[in-house]
Amino acid sequence: MNASRRLIRALAATTALGVGALGLTACSDDSGGAEAKGKVDVVASFYPLRFLAEEIGGEHVRTESLTKPGAEPHDLELSPQQTGRLSEADLVVYLKGLQPAVDEGIEQAQPKHVAEATSYVKLEQHGSDVHGEEHGHEHGDEHGDEHGHEQGGHEGGHEEEHSGGDPHIWLDPLRYAQVAEGVGKKLAEADPAHKKTYEKNAEALTKRLRTLDGEFKEGLAHKKSDTFITTHAAFGYLAERYGLDQAAVSGIDPESEPSAARMKKLHQTARTNHIDTVFFESGASDKTAKTLADDLNLKTGVLSPLESVKKGEDYFSVMHRNLISLKTALGAD
Hints:
The chain is of the alpha/beta class. Helices cover 42% and strands 11% of the residues.
């Protein structure tokens, strides 16, 4: 980011902190204000973290997401009003390193209570290829493993934006459960009067996530192939958890462009592993997936990184759909 953009953001943040509340008191349900009276006001950076706040907070919280439905979280730019909301919120839930604009906004706003996802789980370095292993976790292992696999092969470029590690921790239900526990504790700090409710709701949610983990283990237990190809390297943690091999066209950054050498390697991977499906993410262009699929006479399919969901969907419904897609592609039906 260049200096001029940083200056613009800083000026916007200063303006928002000074007058943000003035323009927000009459705003709609998704912008804070009078509607949130009597409830804990939670601002989340994007969908997976808003979902945790909603599930754990229940009727005692009012939530909003800085990233609008269908928008690319990696590209988020904050408005002055949004930066102002960070200073006003009772709790801010975010994932450091995923959205630089949010990191800068929080530094400017200094919210009183913050739940930062990477403080509850360890991020790992993932490239375009991730080779999972069978870990054999018990369902009660809500904390999972710190795998520590170092993966190279960053042919996609732009990986330096995530030099702190792969941020897509929510695609591993057990890592996501760790974050849920952390959010529950921060909600209790922000609203001690309902501490027991938050503890109960967090426990119920982590139980559902452990059940989901069991469903993935069972569903993929008899797969005929371990390898899947996707256009976006968002599924490294999922691959590690369930003994899969992710081969991605682009890197962690979905907008990175693959090299000719990368495409040649994917052709070889598809032939060697008898792959019949190339996945692209929901809400994104399928052009790259179709090009690769046409070259190799393969099918295309959708695998959602769950950075956003459509109306009527939630984390669990989309993860179950991902499981069905993987079972079909890997011959585990």
